[in-house]
């Protein structure tokens, strides 16, 4: 039996329900259980969850109320799952705020966990027993992928490129950010920076040394001086970001002395295609740039931040050094093929999108992920 926290969206709930169908059915929780009685771990779990809550409370009273809510939810979740040792806890995302303590409560109760999330490729989803994005179970050793692919032509070829066959730029929710085509970018030497949503969990949890999107822009402003003559950095704001980054962008442009250009109108993937490389904290566009055979500079934590796949710039000095070598940035094509084939064949399960049933996972695949979650607890 799968127990999942309602996602309040057809895509989320239909996917989690289909996972449950592979294990005999689902139990849906419409709200997170609550309890006043603390555990020894309560304070630690609450502190960690509050620090990465997507909606940060304002003022002392707001913070106290938010802390109380998360505390009650952790205690309630842990007690609930202690009484349901046979179940598997499933949650959408599950790594920030209230949903984090829901999953931590399950984990601390000794219950297997599964985390669901969108995948960076059409027709795929994430379903992982350790977490999503940078917290997922993907090995962080390039040798794992080359060993997995060794002696297997089907794991070394170009089949992985089919993952990007239906890739399209995200529809913009902002009037000042578009996806227009037909821009003339030929012959321009630039590195493209697709900005991320500033309060997204990818930033709040995994931004590494830059810490935030505005800090990233400030670092780029300083590092732009290291670019070869005639090169520039081309920046586009995220089409789903609710607030403009006009002020930090203006500051970065001033520091960079014109070597940063903002293009919020040209289609994201047109800019990727025309670029000489992509710079990102950990955006999926950095991974998707592999389809265009572009070198990628990663500043934060990402499951694809492996030397050879990308250039890992773990400090301001490393970023300046990478920009200084912009003309010779490269990657290992064989490693990329092995890695991407692994994502295709193993890591990101296929899903079907039915107008009535919603998003549905193959039952054998779901059963294998559920078995992996249970095995992880036994270890």
UniProtKB/TrEMBL annotation:
GO terms for biological process: polysaccharide biosynthetic process; polysaccharide transport. InterPro entries: Capsule_polysaccharide_synth, TagF_C. This is Capsular polysaccharide export protein.
């Amino acid at each position: 039996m799968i127990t999942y926290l309602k996602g309040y969206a057809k895509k989320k709930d239909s996917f989690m329900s289909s996972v449950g169908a592979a294990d005999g059915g689902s139990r849906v929780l419409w709200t997170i259980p609550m309890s006043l009685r603390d555990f020894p771990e309560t304070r630690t779990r609450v502190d960690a969850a509050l620090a990465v809550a997507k909606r940060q409370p304002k003022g002392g009273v707001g913070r106290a109320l938010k802390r109380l809510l998360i505390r009650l939810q952790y205690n309630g979740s842990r007690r609930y799952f202690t009484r349901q040792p046979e179940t598997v806890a499933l949650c959408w995302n599950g790594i920030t705020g209230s949903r984090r303590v829901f999953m931590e409560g399950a984990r601390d109760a000794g219950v297997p966990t599964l985390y669901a999330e969108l995948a960076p490729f059409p027709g795929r989803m994430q379903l992982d027993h350790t977490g999503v994005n940078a917290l997922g179970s993907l090995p962080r050793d390039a040798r794992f992928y080359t060993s997995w692919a060794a002696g297997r032509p089907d794991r070394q070829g170009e089949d992985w490129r089919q993952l990007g066959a239906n890739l399209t730029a995200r529809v913009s929710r902002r009037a000042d950010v578009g996806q227009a085509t037909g821009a003339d970018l030929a012959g321009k030497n630039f590195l493209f920076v697709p900005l991320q949503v500033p309060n997204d969990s990818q930033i709040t949890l995994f931004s590494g040394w830059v810490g935030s999107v505005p800090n990233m822009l400030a670092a780029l402003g300083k590092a732009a001086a290291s670019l070869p003559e005639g090169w520039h950095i081309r920046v586009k704001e995220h089409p789903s970001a609710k607030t403009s980054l006009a002020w930090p962008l203006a500051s970065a442009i001033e520091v960079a002395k014109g070597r940063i250009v903002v293009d919020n109108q040209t289609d994201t993937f047109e800019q990727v295609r025309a670029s000489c490389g992509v710079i990102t904290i950990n955006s999926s566009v950095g991974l998707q740039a592999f389809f265009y055979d572009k070198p990628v500079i990663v500043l934060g934590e990402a499951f694809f931040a492996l030397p050879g796949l990308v250039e890992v710039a773990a400090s301001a000095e490393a970023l300046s050094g990478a920009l200084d070598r912009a003309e010779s940035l490269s990657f290992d094509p064989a490693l990329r093929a092995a890695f991407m084939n692994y994502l295709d064949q193993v890591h990101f399960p296929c899903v079907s999108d039915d107008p009535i049933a919603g998003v549905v996972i193959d039952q054998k695949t779901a059963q294998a992920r559920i078995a992996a979650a249970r095995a992880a607890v036994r270890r």
